[in-house]
Amino acid sequence: MKLKRFFTYFFRIALLLLLILWVVFRFFLNMQKDDAEVAKYFEELQMEAPSSHFVEENGYRLHYKALERSGGLQLVFVHGSPGSWDAFLNFFADSLLRNQASLYSVDRLGYGRTEAGQPESSLHKQAEAILPLLQKLDPARPRILVGHSMGGPIVFRLAMDYPQWVDGVVSVAGLTDPKLESRPAILYPLRSKALRWLLPPDMDVCNREILPLKGELEFMKPLWKNIQASCYIMQGDADMLVAEGHADFAEQQLVNANFTSLRLAGENHFTIWTRPELVKRAVFCLAEEIDTAYTKFPSH
To answer: Given 3.50.50.60, 3.40.50.720, 3.40.50.11260, 3.40.50.1820, which CATH number is that of 32-290?
Structure first.
């Protein structure tokens, strides 16, 4: 009887702890820093913080952060799924980039301050929402897009649909090959209205936008030939979320574009945080290829 009572109490406590964890996960998990946190972060670094902007066109209201200068490169960062503009916060704090480039980082459709909670699985529409920002940039200065994970196919889609507005593309752990795209079966029931409430809002958006990704990548296959921008593909061989074959596929499809491919031994999915110096090097390599007048990346 004592043993039975012990297990009864044990399971009750375990269930209570699981309930507490779910409540914290569901209602208090916040994937984005608020403006006060961002201001404090840059204040401690004694740096100017990026400012918020919106661009409205084609029925979208896109939020992005910007840190602009009068000359040099123009970098547009596109985050993964889930995520927000501050996935690239460390790049805004990099003194070399701040001195050499204007920096822009978007909240993609469904995240942050851009149509929050409303998923958009169409890669064309995700790209279309970012286009007005590119159109605001100086056409006389290189426009380089940096996409991580789910941001990878979106920056490629921008280069496919609007080649005149894109000079360079950096894809970090980007998803490209529809044959390699599959998701655990357990995720599919969670997109139903009956079960979506179990997930935090950003995870719900992530689930609903990424499950149709295989079909979206299929739609892109005949469009790869449109890409004329110089491309840089980065992929870790220890990435548990994106198979290395996605990089192989992108290389095979870039038939009308110059590209460089960098495979990272032992690197995981989170290169933008673990090896940001390599992402910066990719940016400046592209800049040199686009226009040799721009500053080279330091060799040390």
So the answer is: 3.40.50.1820
